[in-house]
Request: fold
Amino acid sequence: MTLYFGSDHAGRELKDILLSHAKAKGISAIDLGTDSDLSVDYPDYARKVGESVLASPGAYGILVCGTGIGMSIAANKIRGIRAALLYNEETARLAHQHNNANIIVFGGREVAPKDATSWLDAFLSATFEGGRHGRRIEKVSQIEQENHGTTT
Reply:
């Protein structure tokens, strides 16, 4: 399994903690930036991580910005990405089990590092259940296909 990590300046510190946590567990973890506290634009990093996840079957992405909202919005604009903003351990598990999320998102200013590492572990230990959830993911994909090329 490979994890791609990205953040803006507001999420860099938590991203670095999550990246180190993944590496300590022996997971292939790739840092796509930022590596600075200088102001950067979150959509650039959502794109880098999203495109990397799509190009690497079985990979997942981890994004962090100040609240997680901007990264979630930007990542979900990429066709084929299902990014889930986490707010507790249960949402981490369900993002994988029910939504087959391929990117999880954290609010760097909103989440304590010990909670974030626990949520990452919960996400990674879960598996997609399929069944009725698979049917729902197909419907989401259908919406995405029908609206491809439109702007909002």
Q: What stands out?
A: Residues 2-146 form a domain with the Ribose 5-phosphate Isomerase B; Chain: A, fold (CATH 3.40.1400.10). Residues 18 and 116 are 7 Å apart (CA to CA).
